[in-house]
Design brief:
With 115 residues, this protein is mainly alpha-helical. It has helices at residues 2-13, 20-27, 33-49, 60-76, 79-111.
Length: 115
């Protein structure tokens, strides 16, 4: 389950390195709080599964439900749309800064009496 989520985090959010816990920490607020909590449950189960006695404490039904919920959320993410939104946000910020610079330059030239 953890490997499946790692592959989806790599594909959808470009989180390529580290175990599931590390990837979740780097995902931060890109994941909603509920999904992050469910993914955290899967990561904890992965850690407990490595120890024979502690693996008995894992609630497999709950982990399976959490995995399904996180997987459904990650599959719904459109990576191309996220990239497009990031580029458009960057270009919008640059355009605003250019307009602000032009307005300030025009105001300065008018103040100095050159226009």
């Amino acid at each position: 389950m953890a490997q499946d989520l790692c592959a989806l985090l790599d594909e959808k959010l470009s989180l390529r390195r580290g175990p599931l816990q590390t990837r979740l920490n780097r995902a931060g607020r890109r994941l909603p709080a509920r999904i992050r909590a469910q993914a955290q449950l899967v990561a904890e189960a992965e850690t407990l599964a490595t120890h024979p006695k502690l693996s008995l404490r894992i609630d497999r039904d709950r982990v399976a439900r959490a995995h399904a919920e996180v997987r459904a959320h990650l599959r719904a993410i459109d990576a191309a749309d996220r990239r497009r939104g990031a580029v458009l946000g960057l270009l919008g910020g640059l355009a605003f800064n250019m307009l602000l610079l032009a307005a300030l330059t025009l105001a300065f030239l008018r103040w100095r009496g050159l226009v």
